[in-house]
Prior knowledge:
Strand content: 15-25%
Order of helices and strands: HEHEHEHHEHEHHEEHEEHEHHHEEHH
Number of helices: 15
Radius of gyration: 21 Å
Number of strands: 12
Helix content: 40-55%
Largest sheet: 7 strands, mixed
Structural class: alpha/beta
Amino acid sequence: MDNYTSALIKSIHQWGGGLNGRPIDTIYLGGGTPSLLYHRLPNLIYEVKSAFNVAENCEITLELNPSTSSEGLLEYAKKADINRLSIGAQSGSDSMLKTLGRTHSVKDTENTVTTARKMGFNNISLDIMIGLPRSTSETLKYDLDFISSLSPDHISAYMLKIEENTAFFAQRETLALPDDDAQAEQYLQMSDYFESSGYDHYEISNFAKKGKQSRHNLKYWLGDDYLGIGPAAHSMLGGKRFFYPKDLKGFINGSSPLSDGNGGGKEEYIMLRLRLKSGISPKEFKNLFGNELSAEFMEKCRIFKKAKLIDITENNISLTNKGMLLSNSIITELLECEI
């Protein structure tokens, strides 16, 4: 932990000198379980503030697992000026958490949120997973009610994805996962539930109360610059993408990031913006790239509109909730058009 933190601080100062005082208005400690850094958090944020021009109203997010959170951790988070928490709740069922291999209980989630609120954290995001083994509309309703009962300011919702080289992948044939149609129904049920509860469905997987969208994650979808430091961290600065190898020892020993090509082109704009409820702005597209969206592209959008997968207004082209379910296929078809 100490060696990693030292390497992180060294990289932070190396990068800080290269951004020429450019303002930083979001900081995100995430990927893995950064709450394990515990008492090191205040010094880590202090070093970021000493290396970069950090805005006074900076959004500073800490990801944490309810099983690794405690009042002591939250006190260190307060000292570090962390003002947003992203908590991996995942489910309101202890048996499902056990099936998922999570190390926390439902009570751990409740206690974490309650303690954080008492300590003055007023921007809390909860993660929920859908499409879980043996899940139904009824079990999903139970999870949605649980998440809602904690009154989070923000909710990130993900469909369970079985990745190779995981315990789930080895037992995938016995998991009794809902089929594609059932997963689609769960997604629409969840979307309707949170929207009717006052949350803005501002991105395919994200819901927020007014003014509580993740300012940091919006940068990815809006094509803004961002800098990632640490093993497997990705960045885009000045139209260039790069990343650190997924190698902890290498990072501690001073490995440099690797190039990942250029970013910010037309295709990327369409792919990322269609994840957002606000969608594509034809006017902004022309301002950025110097040409109108092609007739072929617009005709394809109109076909998707007839199928109720896309909404088209004077100012925006965006996916409907049903369209969000098929976003990969829709985006792929649109990108086959001349743009």
